């Protein structure tokens, strides 16, 4: 019945310290040996997630930058969508970035406006690191995602400002309370998941998906068998009242649920 498992990382598959637990890795490897296919779907950068996939030890498709990039298990890019360069340039200006740590995700690079050591703690398994750049003067080409990191209240105001200015010209979502993410308007994890299902010839009815935050909404709506984490954002839970909740990421909830579902 089930053929494809799609999962978010932070707050979902990863432990609270943003690393892969051996229990989770072993669970996914056992399922791959049974013929299950995987898609890792995250707001993280492709180069970072590639390293996390290596730690997991599975041949997963990678949906990264919230769906702006999709790579197959052999690292071939099969889907890409960028923010319009003029819009990317505008998003980098102090009018929007003031009071935040701003980053740009490109194909192979992570550019940041100023050093921010705390951000590196999210990349322990991959070792992926940023390059400091003059973002207000960046040309705006090849930008998969703009990321603003700040206190949630500040980002709520920024979200309103961006929606008022750009409307449906951009896809704007939260991946965490302190992370506001901006992509091209047609980008989402849900759309990217349809790309992966098309590549594999897998119907939505054979797809399981796990998520915890607002950037997982479209993916959970796309999969035939969605599950919310016990630690999911209440705003996401309210939008998906019929979707069952499982354990928390601090309890390896995804791995535990998969073991029960497949009788491991």
From TrEMBL:
Belongs to the HAD-like hydrolase superfamily. Cof family. PANTHER family: PTHR47267, PYRIDOXAL PHOSPHATE PHOSPHATASE YIGL (PTHR47267:SF4). Keywords: Hydrolase, Magnesium, Metal-binding. InterPro entries: Cof, HAD-like_sf, HAD-SF_hydro_IIB, HAD_sf. Its cofactor is Mg(2+). Pfam families: Hydrolase_3. It comes from Chitiniphilus shinanonensis. This is Uncharacterized protein.
